[in-house]
Amino acid sequence: MNQTRMFLLFAWIAVATLLYMEWTKEHAPSVVPTTTTASAATAAPAIPVAPSASTALSSATPTAPGAVTTATPSAAPIVTVNTDLLRLTLDGGSVHTAQLLRYPTEAKAGSESVQLLDARPENFFEAQSGWVATGNSPAPSHVDGFVPAEAARSYTMQPGANTLSVPFTWTGANGVTIRRTYTFTRGNYAIQVRDDVTNNGSAPWQGYVYRQLERNPPPQKSGYTNPEALAFHGAAWYSPTDKYEKRKYDKFVDDGTLDKKVTGGWIALLQHYFFTAWIPGDKDEATFSLSTRQVPGATNYLVRALGPGVNVAPGAHAETTARLWVGPKLVEGIEAQHVPGLTRAVDFSSFSFMATLAGWLFAIITMIHGVLGNWGWSIIGLVVLIRLAMYPIAAKQFQSMAKMRKLAPRMQQLKERYGDDRQKLQMATMELYKKEKVNPAGGCLPMLIQMPIFLALYWMLSESVELRHAPWIGWITNLSARDPYFILPILNMLIMYTTQRLTPMQGMDPTQQKMMQFMPLVIGVTMVFFPAGLVLYWVTNGALGLLQQWFMLRRYGDKPELAKA
Fold first, then answer.
1. Which one in 201, 204, 289, 542 has a CA-CA gap of 20 to 30 Å to 135?
2. 8-64, pLDDT tens digit by residue?
3. How many C-alpha atoms does 15 have within 13 Å on its Cβ side?
4. Is the bond leading into 140 cis (omega within 30 degrees of zero)?
5. Could you tell me the pTM of the whole model?
């Protein structure tokens, strides 16, 4: 009964949320889309970059946030890099492709690695970086300028080596040179990108580095049982003042332009399980912006950080460094970067409280996994700990329910005595509750507490890349996919049916009793296509709830006999 009520409450909240979302779509005030040209004009005064800079960049880079022009395909030599985690191709200005060697696309032998960055137009996703300069000074863009500093076109991290450096250079006609070095570290998905600017000319040179992510996002999958469909897909950014913010691809224009001055922070494009992010220095000043770019047959979406700027006198030197994360949403690896707010890229929930709660639950399940070494058993261990922590509240709930059942005959007498006089019936009822020290709302508190925990667990288990393709036992070889033989969903139906039969239904409306009889079947069918990890959580929770209910019924005087159908 407790489990059934909790699911009904969850279903009601889900339906209410969907209705509210649809209502806001229909009643939201219309926003006039702002063109990228207008956005650039508005932001230009705040960015000390001359309009002529775009000419020097071969029309490849905007002179202000939000301005996007057509880029010329790069003719620079392509360099291949192989590390213990990644296989990439880059040309100095752009990282064109990136394969995650430890993450196969499917949970079977011989499956290809996940390709996060992709140069193909239909799956276009690149990490790009270049420079803009003031006046008529030249500067390298992400599509033209940088060339390999060495003869090698292929680099491989050797066994025993902890780092691998891949250098590129650009030399301008004015004597300014920029040496860009990509440094890869063993066991780390964060790539250090360092630009060293040297002015060998006779005039000062002022330039601004830009770093951006550009993508043609794939079509969104649908289905409430598909975790990928429920995951956030779009741009995210973080600033010390406004903290974590995000925007879906279909809201890039409708929700207005972005022109945010930030010191530190980061920008990213998120998807289910994986993400790419530019992380400037914590003291670097930049302007974050969003924009779109029309390409043949598609729309590319960009999130950009313009800045910091450098002013290099003749004979002087300046440098700027950023990190480029290309990899999975591994909490441990992200925390190792020591970047404020970067763990929010593991987007457990749009609600800050729920995201925090999910983060706590993930920390607990990670500690359990450190002991048990298996994510399936860790899920079971987490449910056991939650049940133990909530046992005092559950005991209060069953005490309240037992008292209410004992008062049922007297409640019926009050109804017969006062008939249709609702006011007197209510007063008499409250007097009875007060006399018998019964709290009619006592049975609701555990459900209200369990609901956010269930939702946080649902989002946490759905979003955690650590559980992706993780096996449990026997036939469950992938906790992120559905049970191939539907054993867990069937077991869940049996547990719910037994729990229902064990629940006293005296005084319950006959119509409600019939509805409860069909509830195990309805919920069981609903969970057939859920990921096995989520169903395992629900089965464990239901089994412990059944055991707890049996114990409570014996303790508080109700005979644990199966109720008549």
1. 289
2. 444 445 444 444 444 443 443 333 333 232 233 233 323 333 222 233 333 333 333
3. 6
4. no
5. 0.79
Residue with tokens 């302007």: 287
Write out the two tokens for 429: 């009822």
Average pLDDT over all residues of the chain: 81
Diameter of the chain measured on Cα atoms: 103
Assign residue 373 a region (left: φ > 0; alpha: ψ between -120 and 50; beta: otherwise).
Answer: left
Q: Which phi and psi (to 5°) does residue 52 adopt?
A: -70, -10
Up-side HSE of residue 279: CA atoms within 13 Å toward CB? Answer: 21
Using DSSP, how many helices (H) and how many strands (E) does the chain show? 13, 19
561, exposed or middle or buried, with CB in 10 Å at 0-12, 13-18, 19+?
A: exposed
Beta carbons of 12 and 4 less than 8 angstroms apart: no
β-pairing, 94-104 vs 125-133, is: antiparallel
Burial of residue 556 (CB within 10 Å: 0-12, 13-18, 19+) is middle
In 10 A of CB 360, how many CB atoms? 11
User: How many whole angstroms separate alpha carbon 555 and alpha carbon 240?
Assistant: 54
Confidence (pLDDT) at 446: 63
Alpha helices in 286-390 (DSSP H): 331-335, 352-372, 375-389
Please tell me whether residue 172 adopts helix, strand or coil conformation.
coil
Domain ranges of the chain: 35-343, 363-463+470-555
* DSSP SS3 for 211: strand
Percent of the chain's residues with pLDDT above 90: 52
Long-range (24+ apart) CB contacts under 8 A made by 330-339 are 330/189, 330/465, 330/466, 331/362, 331/366, 331/464, 331/466, 332/366, 333/188, 333/189, 333/190, 336/188, 337/190, 337/279, 339/266, 339/279, 339/282
**Under a CB-based contact definition with an 8 Å cutoff, are residues 309 and 50 in contact?**
no
Tens of pLDDT, residue by residue over 268-306, are 999 999 999 999 999 999 999 999 999 998 999 999 999
Closest listed residue to residue 451, CA positions, set 21, 8, 1, 86: 8
Domain 35-343 has what CATH class?
Answer: mainly beta
d(CA 243, CA 263): 12
Residue 189 in tokens: 């998905």
Parallel, antiparallel or unpaired: strands 285-295 and 298-312: antiparallel
Distances (CA, A) of 371 to 9, 127, 364, 367, 378: 34, 38, 11, 7, 9
DSSP 472: -
Cβ(169)–Cβ(179) below 8 Å: yes
Q: What is the mean pLDDT of residues 168-174?
A: 95
